[in-house]
Amino acid sequence: MRAHTTRAFSPLYDVVVIGGGHAGCEAAAAAARTGASVALLTHNIASIGAMSCNPSIGGIGKGHLVREIDALDGVMPRAADDAAIQFRTLNASRGIAVRGPRAQCDRNLYAKAVRHILRSSQHRSLTITEGSAEKFTLSDGRVTGVQLASSPKGIPADLRAGAVMFMGSKTEMGGRRGDISAVGIADALRLNGLKLGRMKTGTPPRIYADSINFEGIKEEPSDANPVPFSFLTEPSSMLVGRKLVSCFQTRTSIATHDIIREAMAAGLSPEYHSDNAPRYCPSLEAKVSRFGDRDGHVVWLEPEGLDSNLIYPAGISMSLPEQVQQRVINSIPGMKKGKIAIPGYAVEYDYVDPTELRPNLECHRLPGLFLAGQINGTTGYEEAAAQGVLAGINATMHVWDSHPDQHGALHGMSNFDCLTDGYLRLGRGDAYIGVLLDDLTRLGTAEPYRMLTSRAEFRISLRPDNADRRLTPIGREVGCVTRERWESYKKKQRIVEDARNVLRKTKASRVDFGRVGLERVFDGCKRRGNESMYLGDALLRSGVSLQAVEWVAHLEAELQYKPHIERQRVEVDKLRRDEGLKVSKEFDYRRVRGLSLEDFEKLSKEKPQSLGEAGRISGVTPAGILLLRAHVRRQLGKRKGKRKGKEEREVMQMKDEKLLWLGHV
């Protein structure tokens, strides 16, 4: 990173990135790796890499995105590995496709790691500077730069570029605590006709760690064998010289809920202009209102860093007066004497309806302008970073395509289907990033969008372990993958392929399997005394695992999931063929067995008239559509059966009448 550089700051850049949050850092880095000259404009260089909300990376669905960011050589995974103070794999007892790698991070170490990566030689064409963007520069209806409200010495007030990316998250006065809002750019978006909406989010109070009694509440230590986010990080090095900490779990109490209800009844909860709050990370007020029958909600006590005395109590974001928040904290087990260091608060902000964007994240109305991050209606570091990587790559490809005489064009030169349109368009079968972008740009969102494994039709094949196999060759073709990563990827693939061949060709007897404790692979087979089995076939047997190292886990998953992946594709093909199936507007969705509460609420509200319309409702999961399809199909089958039975009875009646007539004659 060059905040102060001796090189003259050129008024012409290939790409200008506005905003130094998670989306902005990934976008600027991806554009620089792809070969563009990049200017990253931020209000405060010191805030680059800041974890403004919870001090963690990953989780179910989110961890999949981080692995995919890494496969494209992104910043977040390596920074998280460097800054992690606790590692846990969520859903560890379930199949590898739905496991969620997660890391608790030291805030300061994470920000330091991000800045270090941005300073590295792979991002040598990236220049970072402080400044405030006021409005866009337009030429023939295209965005060709930004005008700065204030700019440092040597920075032109009119900053020209081949493409501009806005990565803002808060476009309201104040924004997050300590942040400067981006009101000028929000006004510019509105004036240029983009459809804006309102959302809200919040954060919990921070608690002094030395005021908490951790005795008697559940401890959650780090995993003994951590799984890193980056494919470049050696798992064996994860514990070398690293101090790991525990998180703790407690719960709100009935007394907590009574305090919340009392405060809300007294009108102490702020009035908001928007009801579009996060569904999967609701405020404590929303939890008490929505789930009034529960006697408690889980609260995770997460350390903010090795040298920090602050605890982040995940699960209790609130915006009530500080004295009420203090009473709430003291009503929770373990925090009877807990002291608030920073009170919780809520923020309302503008966002752009993501259906205003093309699948490459470029604005329909403002060509040359790319949007990524919370401005598109998403929530979470990981969703923002994933958008940033794709926006950075696509902004660079936009510049290349606009000036083929200077850069050469990629259009029509790729062997990958996702690159044949002249930009990188990951599909739903390619990556969770593809699911994210398709959901946003095709369906839009009415609430802060969070990635979940249930949103993906092909989640068996979109696993964390094979993200590099799916995306690194694509990243290599567009130029955003470094030589170091490419060589590491090829080495791993050679090892995996050699092992695959060994498993395919090597047989072992019942006795051999028994020696290593795997005699159960022959359960259900007839005992002949000389049974043998290929090692690859043995992995398909229930209860057999060879997960000694990560690449073995990857190979095992490839072999075990192969038949399931094929069945999954068949189901999705059936769903596409049945998009025209009619659904009555009066249909009662309570009749669909297994439908989730969210799917039920959204389908009941929107009342789609066909399966295709149901599939285009934002937030309705593929699993929900499959359940609806199965129900509609069953009903059709019953009606056809009744109709067929009636027709058969009519034919038999006609035959009987004919026989009676012949007998009479």
TrEMBL record:
Cofactor(s) needed for function: FAD
One example of a Gene Ontology biological process annotation: tRNA methylation
Any one of the GO CC terms: cytosol
Pfam families: GIDA, SAM_GIDA_C
The tRNA uridine 5-carboxymethylaminomethyl modification enzyme C-terminal subdomain domain, residue ranges: 559-630
Matching InterPro entries: FAD/NAD-bd_sf, MnmG, MnmG-rel, MnmG-rel_CS, MnmG_C, MnmG_C_subdom, MnmG_C_subdom_sf, MnmG_N
Similarity comment: Belongs to the MnmG family.
Record-given protein name: tRNA uridine 5-carboxymethylaminomethyl modification enzyme C-terminal subdomain domain-containing protein
Organism field: Chondrus crispus (Carrageen Irish moss)
